[in-house]
Amino acid sequence: MTAAALLVAGLSLAIFWAPEDADQGISQKIFYVHVPVALTSYAAFFWAAWKALRLLWKGDERNDLESYTAVHMGVIFGVLTLVTGSIWAKVSWGQWWVWSEQQLTLFLILFLFYSAYFMLRYSTDPGPRRARTSAVYALFGVALIPVSFMAIRLAEGLIHPVVFKRDGPDMEGSMFLTFCVCLAAMLALAGALYLIELSGKRADASLRALRERLA
Amino acid sequence: MTGYFGDVAALARKDLLVELRTRDTVPAMLLFVVAALVVFHFALPAESSRLAASGMLWIALLFTALLALVRAFVGERDQGTLDGLILAPCDRSAIWLGKTLSVLAFLLFAEAVALPAFALFYENVTWELVAGVALANVGIAAVGTLLGAMAAAARARELLLPLLFLPVAIPLVVGGVGATVDDDPGRYLAFLALYDLIFAILSWASFEYVVTE
Amino acid sequence: MISASGLGRRFGERRVLSGVDFGLERGGFLLVTGPNGSGKTTLLRLLAGLLAPTEGALEIQTDRGRIGFLGHEPLVYRELTALENLDLFGRLYRVPERRERTGMLLERFGLWDARGEVASTFSRGMLQRLAICRTLLHDPELLLLDEPFSALDAHGTELLQAELADAAGRTLVVASHQPERIDPHATQRLALA
User: Fold this and answer.
1) Alpha helical stretches, state H, chain C
2) Is it the case that residue B28 has pLDDT exceeding 90?
3) Range A18-53 burial, b when 16+ CB lie within 10 A, else e
4) CA distance A126 to chain C (A)
5) C144 in B contact zone (CB under 8 Å)
6) So what's the pLDDT on residue B192?
7) What's the confidence (pLDDT) of residue C86?
8) Contacts of C76 in chain B (CB under 8 A)
9) Interchain contact C13–A (C-beta under 8 A)
């Protein structure tokens, strides 16, 4: 409920209230969606890694489900990041994909990495081993984030000369407020989806356990 | 301490002995890497830069490495010998280290052929290139061995390992190509060393969880 | 030495073992019986530490290096010779006087002449005998044998029976679906459904 409210509030603020950025005009509004979505995605991956760590430490199987759901959220929001980023690129620079957009490239790598996470889970038989292997992989993911970021920065000068410069938004008060509201909205949305999916999966698991006991 | 490294040495020796007797992996790697380099010649436009050629070398090396990595644990799992190692009182990370060292050895053999072939077909091999390859080898072996163990426990393992491995290998390609081509290779070599450090430690510490049930 | 309560193991949806309770004191000999698919192998793998229980509790008062496990697979490297195999495991288990012990076991189980041959040339019976050597190499306190007689030839069977009869203070758990051979020696029995 809160998520929905925040989302509506955030979007309306973004569309109607925040002043248009001098350089990019109305397209700049996408920023209010793109960056919060990206940050939410990161948050989801870190949450997944935290749950993964707890699984390996404590051995509590519930952490596996939580970690998995978090990765799922991260990937969903990651795809949104890629899509909104692409839209922004098209609107700003006339191309659907721009390699020099470091954030976007980073997300592409992460998207590949975490998609493989699902392949890994799908191919492994359920059990304590799958839980542990997924946890280790999730931890590798967050280690990969800074490393890939560094790699992309290094690759920048190497392969694709920096052609497009994007000025980080100099945010005035009103823009900043809108941004924060949108960020809160995205996080709330992710949180809500996470909880919904988690309870759904837990219900499935309980159902299965019951069925087994009856059999 | 000597017990630990004694274990590692015994395990690495075991892998090298097995390879010596069966000759399954290294000859295939040698053939593959040369074949790949030849194929790339036809894929590259006529006046290709050093950058493009280096890129192709790194792709060839990555995929050659995958050949070794896939085989690293599949045999042990299928024959059940991995159980024998897990039963033993040795530290599970020693299994990882032993396997990583043997994979490293296979990579070195493959590169002993690949680099001269590269020099022959394309461009000179500079010391920066060799340093880059040497450093990247460590990263490839370290992460690849861990991921190989993960994949070996799954179905469709030959498909799964490349999927798991390639995203993680992207920074290695950046580092390697950069070291070869850029005017300031030091940055890229330092980056490769950092990658190796981070991921080797992670792999070493988490192997236990991947291989026990 | 061993105590299990409510022990169970699930594989995905399939529950292979459930509600297993027993205790085994040091020096005891537990015979586990049951038809194929009743979970004997799973139980032994749980005891060996190759599997973790998914329910219940299992306590084993000895560490990994003092457990000897003989499963369905011989767990030896086919590409290495008998001597090389035992040498490797001897190192990993920190067996004192490795060479002497290896030689003694190979001789006892009739493999001395084949010691320099790679295991891939061995017959099934010889492989099983090599596996037994591997299992006994480090003089384990706790012996876990899963269908040890199933792959043995006549000679090997004699040798193993002699070995079991002279338990030398070891604790034994043997799983078999043809328990007649071993039954007389057992101090405890556990029948899995």
Assistant:
1) 40-48, 82-92, 98-108, 124-136, 154-165
2) yes
3) beebeebeeebbbbbbbbbbbbbbbbbbbbbbbbbb
4) 5
5) no
6) 95
7) 94
8) 81, 84
9) yes
A205 at the C interface (CB within 8 A)?
no
Res C38: pLDDT: 82
Inter-chain residue contact B213 with C50, CB threshold 8 Å: yes
Chain A residue numbers touching B187 (CB-CB < 8 A):
154
Instruction: Show the low-confidence residues of chain A (pLDDT under 70).
Output: 1-29, 93-100, 157-175, 215
Given an 8 Å threshold on Cβ–Cβ distance, is B87 in contact with C51? no
pLDDT at position C22: 85
Long-range contacts of A52-57 (CB under 8 A, 24+ apart): A52/A134, A52/A135, A52/A136, A52/A138, A52/A139, A53/A135, A53/A139, A55/A131, A55/A132, A55/A135, A56/A132, A56/A135, A56/A136, A56/A139, A56/B206, A56/B209
Residue B49: pLDDT band with limits 50, 70, 90: confident
The string of pLDDT tens digits covering residues B154-205 is 888 888 999 999 999 999 998 998 888 887 888 899 999 999 999 999 999 9
Task: Check residue B78 and give its pLDDT.
Answer: 84
Chain A residues with CB under 8 Å of B155 CB are 123-124
Q: How many Å from the N-terminal Cα to the C-terminal Cα in chain C?
A: 24
Which two structure tokens, joined as six digits, stand for B6? 């004694």
Could you say which of C50, C51, C77 has the minimum Cβ distance to residue B81?
C77
User: Of B180, B167, B181, B27, which is closest to residue B106 (Cα–Cα)?
Assistant: B27
Contact state of A127 with C15 under an 8 Å Cβ cutoff: no
pLDDT in tens, C113-143: 988 999 999 998 899 999 999 999 998 999 9
- Span C44-76, pLDDT tens digits: 999 998 988 888 888 888 888 999 999 888 899
pTM of the model as a whole: 0.88
Residue C19 burial (CB count, 10 A): 11
Contact list, C88 vs chain B (CB under 8 Å) = 10-11, 14
Range picked from A50-54, A58-62, C38-42, C182-186 for highest mean pLDDT: A50-54
Give CA separation, B150 vs A43, B24, C116, in Å: 26, 21, 34
Q: Between B127-152 and A128-159, two packed helices, what is the crossing angle to 10 degrees?
A: 160
Of C50, C77, C118, the CB nearest to B87: C50
Spatial distance between the Cα atoms of B142 and B13, rounded to a whole number of angstroms: 17
- Alpha carbon of residue B127 to chain centroid: 20
> Do the Cβ atoms of C135 and C73 come closer than 8 Å?
no
Q: Distance from C11 to chain A by nearest Cα, in Å?
A: 6
- Residues from chain C contacting residue A124 (CB–CB below 8 Å): none
pLDDT tens sequence across B138-157: 999 999 999 999 999 888 88
Number of neighbours of residue C144 by Cβ within 10 angstroms? 29
Q: How far apart are CA C70 and CA C180, in angstroms?
A: 19
How far is B107 from B65, CA to CA, in rounded Å?
7
Helix axes A173-214, A62-93, angle to 10 degrees: 140
